[in-house]
């Protein structure tokens, strides 16, 4: 009798009779939506918030709301129905940074038109050589390479350069005696667009406490855009590359060159090739974490 009563409650909650195939389809669709949301929020502070909201919703709906409907506690039911309507607005406010990041990526006018560093470009060799030398000298560096999402707002806050990429220029910018050495460099196409650029710091709560500001900035920019970032540690000299909220540490010059060639494809080769490079990077990063 209790099971029959619960079944009737669920029928009243849904408003239409529950049928086996329809219920299965709805569960699968809801599961896919939740999975995509968690995957999109992975690596950000919003992921923990989403998990907490799911736990709260499970307890609230699965226990309190169902019980209130079973025993016809109309006031509690009324409160939950109003809260459900307000939860949409609350979600927009809570996940505003993540929504902004997603809309920014979707808002690219034409994903096949962009200024990438060519995979066979001598600029990549200049970048790698500069990073190798700075790594050997334990000179900190932070370089961002624009892909589809424009980095205009960060360029405008820095010192505009619009100069050819060269090993000497990058070494000079990041030399400890210069004014611009503590901030980042942004590369657009085959040009150094700006130096002294401040990048947003990553808010990922899962990051190690030992990770410095430079590497957090390298991660933060990749969380806000699809840029590729390179960080050289001032303490250890280790070279790292970041993309899509992931950071791969301890690269050799050859490995750095290989990763840049995969991730910074020429725009005419299309977004598909760039996405494949990002997927290969993510797989290697997961393997590194498991070791």
Report the end-to-end length measured between terminal Cα atoms: 54 Å
Low-confidence stretches: 108-115, 266-277
How do the helices and strands follow one another from N- to C-terminus? HHHHHHEHEHEEHEEEHH
Query: How much of the polypeptide forms β-strand, as a percent range?
Result: 5-15%
Q: Helical region count?
A: 11
Number of domains: 2
Nutshell version of this structure?
With 291 residues, the chain is an alpha+beta fold. It is 56% helix and 13% strand.
Structure explained in plain terms:
By secondary structure, the chain is of the alpha+beta class. The chain folds into two domains: 2-106, no CATH class; 122-290, DNA integrity scanning protein, DisA, N-terminal domain (YojJ-like (1). Helix content is 56%, strand content 13%. The chain contains eleven helices and seven strands. The protein has helices at 2-14, 20-41, 45-70, 74-94, 96-106, 122-136, 152-157, 167-173, 213-224, 253-263, 271-290; strands at residues 141-145, 159-164, 184-188, 191-197, 228-232, 239-243, 246-251. The chain has a seven-stranded mixed β-sheet, with helices on both faces. A hairpin with a 6-residue loop joins strand 5 and strand 6 (239-243). Helix 6 packs antiparallel against helix 10 (253-263). The chain is elongated, with a radius of gyration of 24 Å. Mean pLDDT is 76; it is low at 108-115 and 266-277.
